[in-house]
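Let's practice the habit of predicting before peeking. Look at the sequence and jot down your guess about where helices and strands might fall. Then scroll down.
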Amino acid sequence: MFPTEPAAVNNGFGALLKNRGFMLLWIGQLVSQLADKVFFVLMIALLENYSPLPGLAQNSMYSTLMLSFTIPAILFGSAGGIFVDRLPKKLIMVGSDVVRGILTLCLPLLPRQFLILLILTFAISTVTQFFAPAEQAAIPLLVKRENLLAANALFTSTMMGALIVGFAIGEPILSLAKSWMGEEYGQELVVGGLYILSAAIMQPIKFKEPKRPREHRASNNPWAEFTESLRYLKKNPLILNAMLQLTTLYCVFAALTVLTIRLAEEFGLKEKQFGFFLAAAGVGMVSGAAILGHWGDKLHHKPLPLIGFLMMALVLGVFTFTHNLLLALALCGFLGIGAALIGVPMQTLIQQQTPPTMHGKVFGFQNHAVNIALALPLAITGPLTDALGLRIVLIGMSVVVVFVGVWAWKNTRNVLQDVI
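Done guessing? Here is the structure:
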């Protein structure tokens, strides 16, 4: 059912640096990712200047704003992937950045009403659902099969780097923009400018778009294409299994986002300093992705996802027995390396095993499934911790991670050792 030839020699990051199209895509997505994080900081900063809806308290405004970011991912995740297969990838990515940039630049011109801020945030998050699958589908069009592991490692590194750096420098950048360009429009000009800059960087890229099958060109029914993606995944358990592992990985990080607030208290930090733990995990992911990108060919026959799950389970299991802050941060870094050993190979596997005409639908469904799955750990982790205690929840997560890792590896180990 699946090709079993070993991947060609991976030249690490060296081959990617000579690939002009890929480098433009990478730099463009890095700028776009940075814009996303700074935009989120901007929305939080702007709340104090907006009139709330009647009966809505300040904390409720924060929660409502978060929902306006999250709901489009649940509603339109798969739809974005369907359009990616129908339209040129560059048009979607460049167009998405331009639209997000224009909407951001419109902020100072609109009334300072909270409802308007919600609508605009919802619109920008909706456009992002088209950018994400197009970006994933574009990588295999620009990179040779043997270099996909290094390419995904580089993308994972910069994605986590943008997450860490974006939230860290978001507030200083916006403060400088206010002082240099004025309080009325300075912040919005910087964020909107980042989106426009990302579009300009990716504009010169030349893609060789795959030809759509005749039956797809004749079909104008998005629902039929969505059900086609479900049938395709059902017939390809290897890809479905890889998505399950990625979803499990993101769910663990979603739960940790909630738990790190309690962990900060355990180590004598302020609640607002919970980001230290997430940043340490992010540094670990960057390190793990860099290792895979440079030495991936030497790790070709290693059970990387299984090793990654076991590393994460080990950290979760021993975390609450640790009382030294530096050791706890080091454990978070170790967990991040394990996460990279899962995320990078699994994303590469999906790209390798999915035909180009299905890339958009498969990646759209992947983003959709992940965003829906994230809602469960975000919803239950807090109440479970209150009811059972932090230690029991972390040990329970450790057991679940081991179970999923071993089960997934048993299902796919023979094929994965050949295609990764």
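How did you do? DSSP finds 15 helices and no strands in the chain.
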